[in-house]
Amino acid sequence: MSSRISQPPTKNDIGTSRITINNKDMSTPLQGTVLEACIQTKDQYIVFLTDDILNEDFLNIHLLNTNFEKIDSVTIGSAYSTGSFRNLSIDRNDQITFSFFNNKTWSIRVLEKPKIKVPFLSGPSGVNWGVNLFHHLDIDTTLDSA
């Protein structure tokens, strides 16, 4: 698994990367420039990419099928805050947990059928669902204990 930057970040645009999995290149670039992790769950891949922008790093999560076509994407972060991707784990039910920002443990799972996710109303604060209403990814958070 590797990534190469196809468009570096600029003052006005988020950078993108092309992903290679098992020596097969993805033709469409994904938002994000630093590959944090790639997890295969059943017949899909979940790719975690950060933007590599000092003091405002977002986490881009992309769901790909076996042909490396993007099925879904979601972004985690907020203006004027930055995160650090760490503590990645996967349980027996393919639920993925990790830490990123705001002293929270984030959990993500792939839904069998897409659900409606309304921007600003569906999911925890800091989650950007983009323009699509139906999503295959489900995200939740819990506050880390101090």
The helix/strand series, from N terminus to C terminus, equals EEEEEEEEEEEEE
- Multimeric state of these chains? single chain
- Describe the largest sheet: 5 strands, antiparallel
Stretches where pLDDT falls below 50 for ≥5 residues?
none
| Rg calculated over all Cα atoms | 15 Å
β-strand percent reads: over 45%
Q: What is the 3D form? A: globular
SS-based class: mainly beta
Mean pLDDT: 85
Helix fraction, binned, reads under 10%
What strand line-up does the widest sheet have? 5-6-7-8-12
Cα-to-Cα separation, first versus last residue: 35 Å
Number of helices: 0
User: How many beta-strand elements?
Assistant: 13
Topology of this protein?
Elements: E1 2-7, E2 16-21, E3 24-25, E4 30-31, E5 34-41, E6 44-50, E7 59-65, E8 70-76, E9 86-90, E10 96-99, E11 104-116, E12 127-128, E13 134-143
